[in-house]
Amino acid sequence: MGHITERPSKNKGKRWQATYRGPDGRERTETFDRKIDAQKWITQEEAKIPRGEWVDPRAGNVLLDDYATEWMAGRFNLKPSSRVYYQRLLKLHILPRFGSVPLGRLETSKIRSWHAQLHAERSTTAAGAYRLLRTICNTAVEDRILSRNPCRIPGAGVDRAEERPVASIPEVARAVAKTPERFQLAILLAAWCQLRRGEILGLQRADVNPLQGTVTVRRAWTTSGEGPPKTAAGWRTVTMPPDVAKAMDEHLKRRVGPAKDAWLFVGPGGNPISPRTLNQVWITARKSAGLPALRLHDLRHSGLTWLAATGATMAELMHRGGHASPATAMRYQHATKDRDSSLAAALGKLAEEAGGHSADTPATVDAE
Hints:
three-stranded antiparallel beta sheet, DNA polymerase, domain 1, elongated, mainly alpha
Protein backbone atom coordinates (compact mmCIF):
# COMPACT_ATOMS: atom_id res chain seq x y z
CA MET A 1 0.00 0.00 0.00
CA GLY A 2 1.12 3.55 -0.68
CA HIS A 3 1.79 6.08 2.05
CA ILE A 4 2.04 9.85 2.43
CA THR A 5 4.73 11.69 4.37
CA GLU A 6 4.60 15.33 5.41
CA ARG A 7 7.66 17.28 4.33
CA PRO A 8 8.63 20.80 5.37
CA SER A 9 9.08 23.42 2.69
CA LYS A 10 10.86 26.75 3.02
CA ASN A 11 8.56 28.57 0.62
CA LYS A 12 5.24 26.76 0.97
CA GLY A 13 5.14 25.66 4.58
CA LYS A 14 4.13 22.05 4.04
CA ARG A 15 4.44 19.60 1.18
CA TRP A 16 3.25 16.03 0.91
CA GLN A 17 5.39 13.20 -0.41
CA ALA A 18 3.38 10.31 -1.89
CA THR A 19 5.01 6.89 -2.28
CA TYR A 20 3.78 3.55 -3.64
CA ARG A 21 5.45 0.32 -4.77
CA GLY A 22 5.10 -0.61 -8.45
CA PRO A 23 4.62 -4.15 -9.79
CA ASP A 24 8.37 -4.32 -10.45
CA GLY A 25 9.03 -4.00 -6.72
CA ARG A 26 10.48 -0.48 -6.92
CA GLU A 27 9.05 2.50 -5.06
CA ARG A 28 7.82 5.59 -6.95
CA THR A 29 7.60 8.98 -5.28
CA GLU A 30 5.99 12.31 -6.16
CA THR A 31 5.63 15.48 -4.06
CA PHE A 32 2.46 17.61 -3.93
CA ASP A 33 1.35 20.89 -2.37
CA ARG A 34 -1.89 19.35 -1.09
CA LYS A 35 -2.39 16.10 0.78
CA ILE A 36 -5.57 15.31 -1.17
CA ASP A 37 -3.62 15.46 -4.46
CA ALA A 38 -1.01 13.11 -3.06
CA GLN A 39 -3.67 10.60 -2.03
CA LYS A 40 -5.41 10.88 -5.39
CA TRP A 41 -2.16 10.14 -7.23
CA ILE A 42 -1.48 7.02 -5.14
CA THR A 43 -5.03 5.76 -5.68
CA GLN A 44 -4.85 6.26 -9.44
CA GLU A 45 -1.44 4.62 -9.85
CA GLU A 46 -2.28 1.62 -7.67
CA ALA A 47 -5.59 1.11 -9.51
CA LYS A 48 -3.69 0.73 -12.81
CA ILE A 49 -1.70 -2.25 -11.57
CA PRO A 50 -4.46 -4.93 -11.46
CA ARG A 51 -5.92 -3.59 -14.73
CA GLY A 52 -2.59 -4.04 -16.50
CA GLU A 53 -2.45 -0.32 -17.34
CA TRP A 54 0.49 0.63 -15.15
CA VAL A 55 3.62 1.95 -16.83
CA ASP A 56 6.91 3.12 -15.44
CA PRO A 57 6.64 6.94 -15.52
CA ARG A 58 10.38 7.31 -16.03
CA ALA A 59 10.44 4.92 -18.98
CA GLY A 60 8.44 7.41 -21.04
CA ASN A 61 11.50 9.67 -21.08
CA VAL A 62 13.23 7.31 -23.54
CA LEU A 63 13.69 9.05 -26.89
CA LEU A 64 11.98 7.50 -29.91
CA ASP A 65 15.34 7.46 -31.72
CA ASP A 66 16.90 5.28 -29.01
CA TYR A 67 13.89 3.01 -28.66
CA ALA A 68 13.53 2.54 -32.44
CA THR A 69 17.20 1.55 -32.67
CA GLU A 70 16.67 -1.03 -29.93
CA TRP A 71 13.45 -2.17 -31.60
CA MET A 72 15.18 -2.77 -34.94
CA ALA A 73 18.02 -4.68 -33.27
CA GLY A 74 15.51 -7.01 -31.65
CA ARG A 75 13.80 -7.92 -34.94
CA PHE A 76 16.15 -10.78 -35.82
CA ASN A 77 13.59 -12.48 -38.10
CA LEU A 78 13.12 -9.56 -40.50
CA LYS A 79 13.86 -10.29 -44.14
CA PRO A 80 16.79 -8.25 -45.49
CA SER A 81 14.49 -6.32 -47.83
CA SER A 82 12.09 -5.48 -44.98
CA ARG A 83 14.97 -4.33 -42.77
CA VAL A 84 16.25 -2.01 -45.49
CA TYR A 85 12.72 -0.68 -46.03
CA TYR A 86 12.15 0.00 -42.31
CA GLN A 87 15.53 1.67 -41.92
CA ARG A 88 14.77 3.94 -44.85
CA LEU A 89 11.39 4.92 -43.42
CA LEU A 90 12.96 5.67 -40.04
CA LYS A 91 15.86 7.65 -41.45
CA LEU A 92 13.93 9.72 -43.99
CA HIS A 93 10.47 10.16 -42.52
CA ILE A 94 9.99 9.16 -38.87
CA LEU A 95 13.11 10.10 -36.91
CA PRO A 96 13.61 13.56 -38.47
CA ARG A 97 10.22 14.51 -37.01
CA PHE A 98 9.97 12.46 -33.81
CA GLY A 99 13.43 11.06 -33.09
CA SER A 100 14.20 13.57 -30.32
CA VAL A 101 10.75 13.25 -28.72
CA PRO A 102 10.40 11.12 -25.54
CA LEU A 103 7.98 8.22 -26.04
CA GLY A 104 5.75 9.54 -23.26
CA ARG A 105 5.32 12.84 -25.10
CA LEU A 106 4.25 11.50 -28.49
CA GLU A 107 0.92 13.16 -29.23
CA THR A 108 -1.80 11.94 -31.54
CA SER A 109 -2.39 15.45 -32.89
CA LYS A 110 1.29 15.82 -33.88
CA ILE A 111 1.30 12.39 -35.50
CA ARG A 112 -1.87 13.27 -37.41
CA SER A 113 -0.29 16.47 -38.72
CA TRP A 114 2.90 14.64 -39.74
CA HIS A 115 0.95 11.93 -41.55
CA ALA A 116 -1.25 14.42 -43.39
CA GLN A 117 1.76 16.32 -44.68
CA LEU A 118 3.55 13.16 -45.81
CA HIS A 119 0.36 11.75 -47.34
CA ALA A 120 -0.02 14.85 -49.50
CA GLU A 121 3.46 14.22 -50.91
CA ARG A 122 3.63 10.41 -51.01
CA SER A 123 0.53 8.50 -50.00
CA THR A 124 2.07 5.03 -50.15
CA THR A 125 5.12 6.12 -48.13
CA ALA A 126 2.87 7.82 -45.57
CA ALA A 127 0.91 4.60 -45.00
CA GLY A 128 4.08 2.54 -44.58
CA ALA A 129 5.73 5.03 -42.24
CA TYR A 130 2.61 5.29 -40.09
CA ARG A 131 2.30 1.49 -39.85
CA LEU A 132 5.92 1.23 -38.73
CA LEU A 133 5.54 3.96 -36.09
CA ARG A 134 2.33 2.34 -34.84
CA THR A 135 4.03 -1.05 -34.57
CA ILE A 136 6.97 0.41 -32.63
CA CYS A 137 4.56 2.14 -30.23
CA ASN A 138 2.59 -1.09 -29.82
CA THR A 139 5.78 -2.74 -28.62
CA ALA A 140 6.32 0.16 -26.21
CA VAL A 141 2.84 -0.53 -24.80
CA GLU A 142 3.75 -4.20 -24.37
CA ASP A 143 6.97 -3.13 -22.63
CA ARG A 144 4.90 -0.92 -20.26
CA ILE A 145 6.62 2.21 -21.45
CA LEU A 146 3.37 3.62 -22.86
CA SER A 147 -0.08 3.17 -21.38
CA ARG A 148 -1.70 3.46 -24.81
CA ASN A 149 -0.59 3.85 -28.40
CA PRO A 150 -0.67 7.48 -29.61
CA CYS A 151 -1.09 6.28 -33.21
CA ARG A 152 -4.89 6.33 -33.31
CA ILE A 153 -5.71 7.76 -36.75
CA PRO A 154 -8.38 5.68 -38.55
CA GLY A 155 -7.28 4.55 -42.00
CA ALA A 156 -3.82 6.15 -41.82
CA GLY A 157 -2.05 2.83 -42.29
CA VAL A 158 -4.15 1.75 -45.27
CA ASP A 159 -2.30 1.90 -48.57
CA ARG A 160 -4.86 2.92 -51.17
CA ALA A 161 -2.68 2.39 -54.21
CA GLU A 162 -4.01 3.54 -57.53
CA GLU A 163 -5.45 0.92 -59.86
CA ARG A 164 -2.67 -0.35 -62.07
CA PRO A 165 -3.14 -0.77 -65.83
CA VAL A 166 -3.65 -4.17 -67.41
CA ALA A 167 -1.71 -4.71 -70.61
CA SER A 168 -3.19 -6.66 -73.49
CA ILE A 169 -1.42 -9.70 -74.90
CA PRO A 170 -0.42 -7.86 -78.12
CA GLU A 171 0.99 -4.98 -76.05
CA VAL A 172 3.18 -7.32 -74.03
CA ALA A 173 4.34 -9.07 -77.22
CA ARG A 174 5.28 -5.69 -78.68
CA ALA A 175 7.25 -4.79 -75.54
CA VAL A 176 9.08 -8.15 -75.56
CA ALA A 177 10.12 -7.50 -79.16
CA LYS A 178 11.65 -4.19 -78.05
CA THR A 179 13.59 -5.86 -75.19
CA PRO A 180 17.21 -6.96 -75.72
CA GLU A 181 17.29 -10.69 -76.44
CA ARG A 182 19.17 -11.65 -73.26
CA PHE A 183 16.40 -10.13 -71.12
CA GLN A 184 13.34 -11.26 -73.09
CA LEU A 185 12.83 -14.40 -71.01
CA ALA A 186 12.58 -12.29 -67.84
CA ILE A 187 9.72 -10.28 -69.34
CA LEU A 188 7.96 -13.47 -70.46
CA LEU A 189 8.27 -15.01 -66.99
CA ALA A 190 6.79 -11.88 -65.40
CA ALA A 191 3.76 -11.82 -67.70
CA TRP A 192 3.07 -15.49 -68.47
CA CYS A 193 4.28 -17.19 -65.28
CA GLN A 194 3.30 -14.28 -63.00
CA LEU A 195 6.65 -14.20 -61.21
CA ARG A 196 7.81 -11.26 -59.12
CA ARG A 197 10.97 -9.41 -60.11
CA GLY A 198 13.02 -10.86 -57.26
CA GLU A 199 11.74 -14.37 -58.02
CA ILE A 200 12.85 -14.05 -61.65
CA LEU A 201 16.33 -12.84 -60.74
CA GLY A 202 16.65 -15.60 -58.12
CA LEU A 203 16.19 -18.45 -60.59
CA GLN A 204 18.97 -20.99 -61.13
CA ARG A 205 19.36 -23.79 -63.65
CA ALA A 206 18.25 -26.40 -61.09
CA ASP A 207 14.94 -24.56 -60.69
CA VAL A 208 13.93 -25.35 -64.27
CA ASN A 209 12.55 -28.74 -65.36
CA PRO A 210 12.69 -28.75 -69.18
CA LEU A 211 10.98 -32.14 -69.48
CA GLN A 212 7.91 -31.07 -67.51
CA GLY A 213 8.07 -27.45 -68.63
CA THR A 214 8.02 -26.12 -65.08
CA VAL A 215 9.92 -23.53 -63.07
CA THR A 216 10.19 -23.65 -59.27
CA VAL A 217 10.52 -20.54 -57.10
CA ARG A 218 12.84 -21.20 -54.17
CA ARG A 219 14.48 -17.83 -53.53
CA ALA A 220 14.41 -14.16 -54.45
CA TRP A 221 17.20 -11.78 -55.39
CA THR A 222 16.71 -8.21 -54.25
CA THR A 223 18.86 -5.14 -53.71
CA SER A 224 19.83 -6.71 -50.36
CA GLY A 225 21.01 -9.93 -51.99
CA GLU A 226 19.62 -13.46 -51.86
CA GLY A 227 16.66 -14.21 -49.62
CA PRO A 228 13.48 -16.29 -49.36
CA PRO A 229 10.38 -15.60 -51.45
CA LYS A 230 8.12 -12.78 -50.29
CA THR A 231 5.71 -15.16 -48.53
CA ALA A 232 5.62 -18.83 -47.57
CA ALA A 233 3.18 -19.31 -50.44
CA GLY A 234 5.86 -17.91 -52.74
CA TRP A 235 7.57 -21.31 -52.69
CA ARG A 236 5.81 -22.84 -55.67
CA THR A 237 6.17 -24.64 -58.99
CA VAL A 238 4.39 -23.21 -62.03
CA THR A 239 4.04 -24.59 -65.54
CA MET A 240 5.28 -22.46 -68.39
CA PRO A 241 3.12 -21.93 -71.48
CA PRO A 242 4.65 -23.70 -74.53
CA ASP A 243 6.13 -20.54 -76.08
CA VAL A 244 7.75 -19.56 -72.77
CA ALA A 245 9.12 -23.09 -72.31
CA LYS A 246 10.66 -22.86 -75.76
CA ALA A 247 12.24 -19.50 -74.94
CA MET A 248 13.53 -21.02 -71.69
CA ASP A 249 15.24 -23.87 -73.56
CA GLU A 250 17.00 -21.41 -75.86
CA HIS A 251 18.04 -19.21 -72.93
CA LEU A 252 19.48 -22.17 -71.01
CA LYS A 253 21.51 -23.29 -74.02
CA ARG A 254 22.91 -19.89 -74.89
CA ARG A 255 23.22 -17.91 -71.68
CA VAL A 256 23.29 -20.16 -68.58
CA GLY A 257 26.27 -22.08 -67.24
CA PRO A 258 26.18 -25.89 -66.83
CA ALA A 259 26.26 -25.87 -63.01
CA LYS A 260 23.02 -26.51 -61.16
CA ASP A 261 23.42 -23.26 -59.20
CA ALA A 262 24.13 -21.17 -62.31
CA TRP A 263 21.97 -18.03 -62.32
CA LEU A 264 19.59 -17.58 -65.26
CA PHE A 265 20.27 -13.86 -65.51
CA VAL A 266 23.89 -13.43 -64.51
CA GLY A 267 25.59 -10.07 -64.22
CA PRO A 268 29.08 -8.80 -63.41
CA GLY A 269 30.86 -10.73 -60.67
CA GLY A 270 28.84 -13.90 -61.19
CA ASN A 271 25.79 -12.68 -59.26
CA PRO A 272 22.37 -12.07 -60.82
CA ILE A 273 21.80 -8.75 -62.52
CA SER A 274 20.57 -6.08 -60.15
CA PRO A 275 16.87 -5.25 -59.87
CA ARG A 276 17.68 -1.71 -61.01
CA THR A 277 19.26 -3.06 -64.21
CA LEU A 278 16.17 -5.08 -65.07
CA ASN A 279 13.97 -2.08 -64.28
CA GLN A 280 15.98 0.14 -66.60
CA VAL A 281 15.84 -2.45 -69.38
CA TRP A 282 12.06 -2.57 -69.01
CA ILE A 283 11.66 1.22 -68.93
CA THR A 284 13.51 1.50 -72.26
CA ALA A 285 11.50 -1.33 -73.81
CA ARG A 286 8.09 -0.08 -72.68
CA LYS A 287 8.77 3.42 -73.99
CA SER A 288 9.86 2.02 -77.33
CA ALA A 289 6.66 -0.06 -77.40
CA GLY A 290 4.47 2.96 -76.62
CA LEU A 291 3.61 1.82 -73.09
CA PRO A 292 5.15 4.52 -70.86
CA ALA A 293 2.83 3.92 -67.88
CA LEU A 294 3.33 0.15 -67.64
CA ARG A 295 5.63 -0.83 -64.76
CA LEU A 296 7.53 -4.10 -64.57
CA HIS A 297 5.25 -5.36 -61.78
CA ASP A 298 2.24 -4.57 -64.00
CA LEU A 299 3.28 -7.48 -66.22
CA ARG A 300 2.59 -9.87 -63.33
CA HIS A 301 -0.65 -8.02 -62.61
CA SER A 302 -1.66 -8.33 -66.26
CA GLY A 303 -0.83 -12.04 -66.39
CA LEU A 304 -2.92 -12.81 -63.33
CA THR A 305 -5.80 -10.84 -64.83
CA TRP A 306 -5.53 -12.87 -68.03
CA LEU A 307 -5.52 -16.00 -65.90
CA ALA A 308 -8.69 -14.92 -64.08
CA ALA A 309 -10.31 -14.22 -67.47
CA THR A 310 -9.83 -17.88 -68.41
CA GLY A 311 -12.02 -18.85 -65.45
CA ALA A 312 -9.23 -19.79 -63.01
CA THR A 313 -10.44 -20.55 -59.49
CA MET A 314 -9.37 -18.64 -56.40
CA ALA A 315 -7.07 -21.49 -55.36
CA GLU A 316 -5.45 -21.52 -58.79
CA LEU A 317 -4.86 -17.78 -58.72
CA MET A 318 -3.37 -18.00 -55.23
CA HIS A 319 -0.99 -20.78 -56.25
CA ARG A 320 0.05 -19.18 -59.50
CA GLY A 321 0.67 -15.80 -57.92
CA GLY A 322 2.22 -17.12 -54.71
CA HIS A 323 -0.42 -15.33 -52.62
CA ALA A 324 -0.71 -16.12 -48.92
CA SER A 325 -4.34 -15.00 -48.60
CA PRO A 326 -7.46 -14.94 -50.81
CA ALA A 327 -7.78 -11.17 -50.25
CA THR A 328 -4.84 -10.45 -52.55
CA ALA A 329 -6.00 -12.83 -55.26
CA MET A 330 -9.52 -11.38 -55.15
CA ARG A 331 -8.44 -8.29 -57.09
CA TYR A 332 -7.96 -10.45 -60.19
CA GLN A 333 -11.47 -11.89 -60.07
CA HIS A 334 -13.02 -8.79 -61.59
CA ALA A 335 -14.49 -9.07 -65.09
CA THR A 336 -12.40 -7.97 -68.04
CA LYS A 337 -13.60 -6.74 -71.43
CA ASP A 338 -12.18 -9.76 -73.20
CA ARG A 339 -13.75 -12.16 -70.73
CA ASP A 340 -17.07 -10.31 -70.89
CA SER A 341 -17.07 -10.54 -74.68
CA SER A 342 -16.41 -14.27 -74.59
CA LEU A 343 -19.22 -14.75 -72.08
CA ALA A 344 -21.60 -12.79 -74.31
CA ALA A 345 -20.58 -14.93 -77.27
CA ALA A 346 -21.23 -18.07 -75.22
CA LEU A 347 -24.68 -16.79 -74.27
CA GLY A 348 -25.40 -16.06 -77.92
CA LYS A 349 -24.44 -19.59 -78.86
CA LEU A 350 -26.81 -20.98 -76.21
CA ALA A 351 -29.63 -18.84 -77.57
CA GLU A 352 -28.89 -19.94 -81.12
CA GLU A 353 -28.98 -23.60 -80.14
CA ALA A 354 -32.29 -23.03 -78.34
CA GLY A 355 -33.95 -21.60 -81.43
CA GLY A 356 -33.07 -17.93 -81.32
CA HIS A 357 -33.58 -14.94 -79.08
CA SER A 358 -37.01 -13.92 -77.83
CA ALA A 359 -36.73 -10.45 -79.30
CA ASP A 360 -38.82 -11.55 -82.32
CA THR A 361 -41.68 -12.56 -80.05
CA PRO A 362 -44.29 -9.83 -79.41
CA ALA A 363 -43.97 -8.43 -75.92
CA THR A 364 -46.76 -8.98 -73.44
CA VAL A 365 -48.18 -5.75 -72.00
CA ASP A 366 -49.46 -5.86 -68.45
CA ALA A 367 -52.98 -4.53 -68.03
CA GLU A 368 -53.15 -1.40 -65.94
